[in-house]
## 1
Amino acid sequence: MAKLILIVDDTASNLRLLRDILTYKEYEVIEASNGEEAIKLAKEKKPDLVLMDIQLPGIDGISAGKILRTDPQTSNVKLIAVTSYAMKGDKEMLLKAGFDDYTSKPINIAKLLEQLEKILG
């Protein structure tokens, strides 16, 4: 059975790129464009993994990730932060906030697919 991945990004071109890559690799994909929608979809659909943009309108990605981590319905979902933050210490801050991994923009497709394989098995 294909793994279900929730992509959360408020930029249509980023959503499209990730959707195209993941569907080509035969992952099942659902999408959200903000933190509130991401939380709602994660609770309803129980994805195997969430690719979460950090800079989102409304609830930002870090806050949405923390909500998913503390909710018993979604606490086991794997979280990868997708962000333009690439300063020293950002990865550690995101891991401490509850993310399983982190990838920076622009997205390195080969690296992202490697991360997905490692996290999803």
## 2
Amino acid sequence: MRDSYQLDRLDGVSSLKDMAHRAIKEAILTLRLEPGTLLVESELAQQLGISKTPVRDALQELEREGFVTRILFKGTYVTDVTMKDVTEVFQLRAVLEGLAARLAAPVFTQQELDAIASRLDAAERAWAAGDVPACSLHGQALHEAIIGKADNQRLLLINRNLDEHVRRFRALSDRIAGRLGKSIAEHRRVLAALYDRDGERAEQAMRQHLESVLQDLTHSGGQAPAG
């Protein structure tokens, strides 16, 4: 857990409470505010360039969403990530995204698959260059393309409901040494099945990929090493 953090100042026409909510949540999801970090209203307000009232309102909303935890007489903290949380979310993802891969396999066009392949090539180049954020972003394109192509609105809505928590867990998994390199290879297997229009194999490959991520997170105790 880091002892200090830095947020960007706010400006614009949106309500200060909404802007503070978005800024603090984004910092939580990207681990700029790590699990267990103490959130001091006055410090957050100073960094964001606003008063404490919208910050207090934003923290209350984040508490309702499960991203911060208020402990009586102690303060407000970024909610810890437990292995139960991680396990539940990745179990759901394995089922949902596996199904999405099976549904999407017959309907992807060659051009769409080639575009995914290009993103995976870019992920490999970013990985070789040590650019973890870019590697993760390019790799995520495969997941997004499959979910979008599955043409199942209920699956899409459930996935969106999980997505914000998934972002934080993904950021943790990206920190595990070698994890992104493994993910690229696993993504290649999913893509190969999609090229073959083999829905059953695509589903299996996607589930194996997400179960592999979960296994690595489990071995790291849910808290990937910093760096």
## 3
Amino acid sequence: MKILRHPLFMRPTPESELEQAIDRELRALPERSAPATLMPRVLEAIARREALPWWRKAYTAWPWPARMMFVLGSGSLAAFLLYFAWGLGSGLSLGALSAEAQEMAAQADLAGGVLGALGGAVMTMARAATGNSSLLWGGAAVLGACYLTTFALGTACYRLVAQRA
């Protein structure tokens, strides 16, 4: 006959006792040694992964320009698909949507041309500044004067507003 214990006399944490017993038994087991062929196989697998070209590796191992191009391209594709899905859902025809898309592409091409020209001008100025240090210091002085002027005007405007309040 099995003796039943009253709940008041039961052990408070049987889970922790079970955990300790399992831990004791597992620690008593002998250490298992790895097969002799394991280390060369692991090193060979690591060497194979290192030899892969960057586009076959994980995204985080890609060079940052490739990652930025991927993000830009996939974002553009997602925006393009959302634009067409939204337009078709609104009842516009495919011809009207493609005409709008061509107009936006022309504006983006114009903006790219302007940014390319500005970038070229900045690069030309940077090349000229590396040979002439007075030009570099003059540009730094102009930028510093612009910053201080902006700071001074902001302070003056704040004081004017604070006096009126």
## 4
Amino acid sequence: METILDEKDKKILQTIDTKARLSIANISRKTGIQRDSVLYRINKMKKSGVIRFFSTTLSPEKMGYPISSFVNFELYNLTKQEEKKFIAFLKGHPYVVYVAKTTGRWDTTTQIVAKNLKQFDSVISEIRMKFPRIIKDYNTASIIKEIKYDNMVDLI
């Protein structure tokens, strides 16, 4: 269900989009919205799911992981139980930093980071060997340079 956002909600979201660590008092000052109202609105947007979480966007390369690739998996002979195991494995793997179910040819998209190509290959091999009965195909797309990373604030 879509949540209706008014102009005050939009001002708050635009303010915290670039500086999520601002205090409620600073958000209030920058938006011209009373402090209690800012706190109430942020809590309401968190509860409704508009704000899923506050996070820091890290640079894998700067943290010693220059290999960053999206890996798409096409699955077959899949039961609910096998799908749960597959997703749980991906979610729990330290080098898998993103997991999503997708439509189209690929059933699952992941992002894998690694220190080098040997480690990346090892992660892919580990996944393929653990789930040979359900992985029909996969492909990789390495990230050379991020050009845009957008939190959608301009769409509201």
